[in-house]
């Protein structure tokens, strides 16, 4: 017999699990992509799976825009059974078929029901059957009259299929269902044909390769019209997804390299940095108007439709007449369509590492650089110059006249890395932020060198000026065991772009005499004081993630420094366990920390700041915010000794002022 106390606990935990297992998403695509893996083993998921099986036609494809989770009546089930033998509306548009295949894979991973496996394989066979001999795919198969027969990049239709072929052909673990070797080989051929089609459809403008149209004629491969407001044009959105696919290919051909280089140049040429989209919402959160506002130094955007010859953006209503601005078309099309996109910024972000990785294939520059010891490759598999990052740094020239690049291929590098003072002008470039990982597990107790043990714990220590890091992860893997630095920067003119910096307490230490440091589009996480030190540091477009309730910053800004830590356009997020997080506390009494235009989650405490039992800090520290938003931004509830900046004061917080340095424009490179 179970004691009453234990019985109550068992009931409590089972209720909690039941609640957590319930799906909370209303849209079908969200149900597939956002639910935890364990949810796909629940009765609710199995019930939805029965619907998905019903909607799949015998040919293998699915119709689009169906909320598969909605309960079906007996009459609807009967109608769907009758439709199974038809080919009515089977498509890959709007994610159809590819997303249902993913759902079946996730179901099969939890429940080994052969019907799920067969459903996935039927879907795969449908995609094989639908592919044209030239490698493209139509929007509907069997073919449906009209523009639906065109090779369709629109809304990622063909790229979604190519992603499936890529995963299947490379036999990755992305899908739980493992096809036969024969099917794997078929997927390889399908993928290669698709790449060939992509290369042949890249549009030439006066003999120069540019980008792609949303649709291409299935016979001539020329750009083609679709709906009346979707005229043949160069596409900012669809082209980005195509290039990202090409950039993933290992050992790319000369033709692929040329395609990527040409598209990257076109994206640079066509980016718009003087406009910002403003959306007007009603009380229900629905868009009722869109306006493009002239803005200086706006985040880059690209038009969805650009003229095939001039690259000039244009807009169309249902009459099919080109207009030069968004406000010239009616509200229905203006507000019901995505006319601009920032998708190409991901291409521009990843391009430098891709270019370095493939430099040997595009020129002889790498050979020249290697003679000068200015380009060094690190690879765990032995394919580079070194297998350890520290060995590459040790082999780098001291105080070089030109930049030295250490390119690190994907892998988990379990080592402590030090960039000493004499290794100036060094760039540490990862192959990808997600898969190039530098990790070590030192912590205060393990070091055991007395009260200053914290400063010996760093996974990566940067002592050299003019340092750059991008596209990699730096991690202290010791866990929540006290002070343990992931990255320590004690140098001037250090810049980190598109990096993950992971740890717990004291994740990121920033110091150095008169040091200025810059973090852009980075993800930084930790528990207590996980960004700390005395340097002047600017964080732009970063995500600052709290793992538990504690303090984000602990600045020790010197008394005469104009700026300390400045966070601009950052997003403050937290784990569910982080419910009461302070923006900062003063490690030293002259601490300076400012948050500007930041989105603050509900985990931020209303009072915002804490004095660390130092009353004198309330008079000397400078803690401020400006134009922030989110549930955590509660300016009226902040401690009385903090500040809300006025517009005139905020105008002083420019990158030029914050990072003012003897080498002009270094940070903007």
TrEMBL record:
InterPro entries: Pectate_lyase, Pectin_lyas_fold, Pectin_lyase_fold/virulence, Pectinesterase_Asp_AS, Pectinesterase_cat, Pectinesterase_Tyr_AS
Gene Ontology MF term list: pectate lyase activity
Active site: 529
Enzyme class (EC, first level): hydrolase
Catalyzed reactions per annotation: [(1->4)-alpha-D-galacturonosyl methyl ester](n) + n H2O = [(1->4)-alpha-D-galacturonosyl](n) + n methanol + n H(+)
Pfam families to which the protein is assigned, alphabetical: Pec_lyase (PF09492), Pectinesterase (PF01095)
Keywords, in A-Z order: Aspartyl esterase, Hydrolase, Lyase, Signal
Location of the Pectinesterase catalytic domain: 376-661
Signal peptide extent: 1-21
Domain of life of the organism encoding this protein: Bacteria
KW Protease (keyword) present: no
EC number, as in UniProt: 3.1.1.11
Involved pathway(s): Glycan metabolism; pectin degradation; 2-dehydro-3-deoxy-D-gluconate from pectin: step 1/5
Family: Belongs to the pectinesterase family.
Protein name: Pectinesterase
Gene source species: Flavobacterium azizsancarii
Organism lineage: Bacteria, Pseudomonadati, Bacteroidota, Flavobacteriia, Flavobacteriales
